Amino acid sequence: MTWLVTGGAGYIGAHVVRAFRNARIEVVVLDDLSSGHEEFVPDGVPFVRASILETDVVARTLEEHNCIGVVHVAGFKYAGVSVQRPLHTYTQNVTGTVSVLEAMQRAGVEAIVFSSSAATYGTPDVDLVTEATPTRPESPYGESKLIGEWLLADQGRATDLRHTSLRYFNVVGSGTPELRDTSPHNLFPLVLEALAQGRTPRINGTDYATPDGTCVRDYIHVADLAEAHVSAAKALAQGRDLLPVYNLGSGDGVSVRQIMDTMAQVTRIPFEPTIAERRPGDPARIVASGEAATRDLGWRMSHSLEQMVSTAWEARQAAQG
Ligand SMILES: NC(=O)c1ccc[n+]([C@@H]2O[C@H](COP(=O)([O-])OP(=O)(O)OC[C@H]3O[C@@H](n4cnc5c(N)ncnc54)[C@H](O)[C@@H]3O)[C@@H](O)[C@H]2O)c1
């Protein structure tokens, strides 16, 4: 009953690994450590240091551990950087997913849960994004995630593969202080890093058509997100039909200003953010409905904004030693 977690040494993958273990489902991790950390893999979990592009290694890992499914988390996630490095992004996210599916076919593994992204929607012109909202990715990253979804769907039509793709919105917080988002581009780590180093965090744009003028996004806690993967894996293992795609969003928007206020409260570091120009391409508001995932996967947000910030801050403090 083992599941392979690709990218299991990364921020989200390591939380997925813990959620599976808490649900008493065995896991094996395959990760090339390009952005992950070996110490994020808990003791007792087999770890294979390899790239998903090494199809033979992925197939052998699936066979050796008698895997019944894959949670395919590994990928290159920097949308901004992907514009400068399209070939790298496509190789990691598209060729990499082909390789995982090829390895699964060879090993006779027929269930996969895929880490997709809100970036598949681009700048949706709706109040609440649902799975029926048209996809219009605006970066090689968003495109590569959409192609990943198509690969799963096409392979599902051609073979007995059971699959679902989970479109994450803004994933934040920590489920345990030893795990954290170390991304140099995401809002939470950027703000926390600035505060930890005594710098003043920055808001890009305060003249958006939103209640307080700053961008509104949909934030979800990584531990809640990880639980949705357990539900998806269990459903696929039981042969239950799932939709090809689910949004993992909260239905609720939080502004950058609200995040800053909560950061100041939680860290007890009073600060007034520096105001900078808008960043090109930042939409005013993106909020998604998670209703379909709630219905089919029991998806729920059990963490408040304060908990998202406080768990992220605790993990940042723990990393400082
Ligand atoms: N963090 C977010 O807010 C967010 C939102 C939407 C989607 N996602 C997707 O979720 C996934 C995980 O994101 P994360 O925030 O944990 O990022 P992360 O960079 O912490 O984790 C990615 C992991 O995959 C590994 N990896 C990358 N390329 C690999 C390869 N070729 N072979 C094997 N391992 C490889 C990395 O070493 C790392 O451990 C990514 O696919 C990302 O696109 C993340």
TrEMBL record:
Its cofactor is NAD(+). Signal peptide: none annotated. It comes from the Bacteria. Pathway: Carbohydrate metabolism; galactose metabolism. SUPFAM superfamilies: NAD(P)-binding Rossmann-fold domains. Its EC number is 5.1.3.2. Residues 3-249 form the NAD-dependent epimerase/dehydratase domain. One of its GO terms (molecular function) is UDP-glucose 4-epimerase activity. Keywords: Carbohydrate metabolism, Isomerase, NAD. It catalyses: UDP-alpha-D-glucose = UDP-alpha-D-galactose. Coiled coil: none annotated. The keyword Isomerase applies. Pfam families: Epimerase. Belongs to the NAD(P)-dependent epimerase/dehydratase family. This is UDP-glucose 4-epimerase.
